[in-house]
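Re: weekly structure request thread

Next one in the queue (200 aa):
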Amino acid sequence: MKNIKIPRMTSAARLADLAQRGIGSADWYEQAAVEIADAAQRLTAELGRTISPKYLGDILAITSPRVAVRRNIRLALQYIRSGTIPSGILPTVAIALRRYEQTGIVRGVKVGPFSKAILGNPQAIVLDVWMSRALGVDQPKLSGLAVHRRASSRVATAARILNDRLGTDHQPAAVQAMIWATVVTDAGRAVARFNVTDHL
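Done, posted below.
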């Protein structure tokens, strides 16, 4: 059996520090789930066909790679309304949308957990380009199963450390959102809320 080299990662204690700085974003995924449920109802009324929160969440997740939150929402809504692949979308995202329409399956180490997180799963840990920065790991390495598991475990441990420190009960998804918000802010960018209904 081949030994898998797992790169060094940021310590769980340091991730807990980052999370504490981003505590204002602890409800990011909860707020996203509420927005998605409301937007799905409104889209159903607008389009005259059922748009379930799961379908909307999945499409939002699939269209999320390498785009800002607002563009992600616009691309997903454009796709749902028109039924066609939006221009300017990444070729891999177009393939993923077609595959999803055929199978109903969301795939990918970032996209699958993101769909779960924005639909309210408190255990889902999203490891995107911003989290790769927080973890100190090149993003392509996060796609390896062993590295992905170790990174997810590190975030879950950070959640336990933070909760012990603050006497709180933040779930792993919330802690991951808090870490993400800190890294985004440290990069000089604004943390956008997942206000789907603002784009309807």
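Residues 145-166 form the longest helix (22 residues). The chain has a mean pLDDT of 95.
Next request, please.
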